[in-house]
Design a protein that fits this description.
The protein is of the alpha/beta class. The protein has a single domain, classed as Alpha-Beta Complex (Spore Coat Polysaccharide Biosynthesis Protein SpsA, Chain A), CATH 3.90.550. Helix content is 40%, strand content 16%. The protein is built from nine helices and seven strands, in the order E-H-H-E-H-E-H-E-H-E-E-H-E-H-H-H. It has a seven-stranded mixed β-sheet with strand order 3-2-1-4-6-5-7, with helices on both faces. Helix 3 links the parallel strand 2 and strand 3. It is globular and about 45 Å long. The N and C termini lie far apart (41 Å).
């Protein structure tokens, strides 16, 4: 099964607010770098047909389009879940039988092979999700052909996705798909795992994560 990934991204000036104590003025640069590494890794995954980024940020749109993503404007402007539903609807307006998955934009250590493993596992269910490394949130939500995405990202999204009927995938050896970055500690963990080139460059000047 070939998948279309839908990745939402806030305007960079507002993205990753919890990272401010560790990143300071570099926070927008890091948010963009995370998204660049996420998109690049997703595009390198053989199970991924294409990547759609939902964003209203002009700089991010240009940079991520250069990596092969299709940019969709966040016309709902009503938050993360509305952006994801809009992106999925745009995909299925062209390909009604598309397999669609939502993926966080802040996975700088993402490995294409681990993403392929998650997508292969998700293909067995109408809807499936993967919890984040903290075990509270969600980094991945899938909808097979014929199923609606029904995103419930945000606080306690793991519990909400489970309650919505989505199947929770076993974490297994897919740590890079679960390691999102919200805080300085998350960034240190991701750096220890090995991040992509964009994040490595953007984080190089951060003394607080040395």
């Amino acid at each position: 099964m070939q998948w279309t990934l839908v990745i939402p991204l806030k305007p960079l000036v507002r993205a990753k607010s919890r990272l401010a104590p560790a990143a300071g003025d570099l926070r927008p640069d890091l948010a963009l770098a995370f998204a660049q590494d996420t998109v690049a890794a997703a595009r390198a995954c053989p199970a991924v047909r294409d990547v759609v980024v939902v964003t209203d940020d002009a700089l991010a749109g240009r940079e991520l389009a250069a990596l092969g993503a299709r940019i969709v404007a966040d016309t709902p402007g009503a938050g993360l879940n509305a952006a994801l539903a809009h992106g999925a609807a745009q995909v299925r307006s062209v390909r009604p039988a598309a397999a669609v998955a939502a993926l966080n934009a802040d996975l700088p250590a993402l490995r294409p092979a681990e993403l392929a493993g998650v997508l292969a596992a998700a293909a067995a269910f109408p809807r499936a999700f993967l919890p984040d490394a903290a075990g509270i949130g969600t980094t991945f939500l899938s909808a097979a052909p014929g199923a609606d995405l029904l995103p419930e990202f945000g606080t306690d999204s793991r519990a909400r996705h489970r309650a919505s009927g989505a199947v929770e995938l076993a974490p297994g050896e897919v740590g890079s798909v679960r390691q999102d970055v919200d805080t300085g500690e998350d960034l240190r963990t991701a750096l220890g795992m090995g991040v992509g080139p964009y994040t490595a460059r953007a984080a190089a000047g951060l003394l607080s994560v040395d």
